[in-house]
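From the shared-data thread, chain only:
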Amino acid sequence: MPRPVHFEIHADDPERAISFYNDVFDWKFSSFGNMEHAYWGIETGPDSEPGLNGGLMKRMGPGPVEGAAVNCYVCTLQVDDLDAYAKRIKTAGGIQTVDKMPIPETGWLAYFKDTEGNIFGCMQFDQTAGK
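Structure, as tokens:
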């Protein structure tokens, strides 16, 4: 069965997006200088842990429509403290789009937008959520 192996973030202002994701999640970015368009690799954590790495590039078309329903492939990130990350996201210039909600016997989920208008989720695993 196919599994995701890479994700990609498209940004109007790549440097602003890099700053946002570095400030919030401590992700590491490295430029791929030999490509036709500027591209940065994203290291989200050590290879010894589950998860995947991605890339970031300048958006090559119109961005997300303000106020529209989810119109993209949403990536959800595992966090250890959803409330703490919500604060970090807002401090870094992001906004919360869907309030924290329980996913019964799984955890707590909320959705946010980064500085480029991209939607992403954060999940804090907690088997007592919703009980």
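Residues 7-60+73-125 form a domain with the 2,3-Dihydroxybiphenyl 1,2-Dioxygenase; domain 1 fold (CATH 3.10.180.10).
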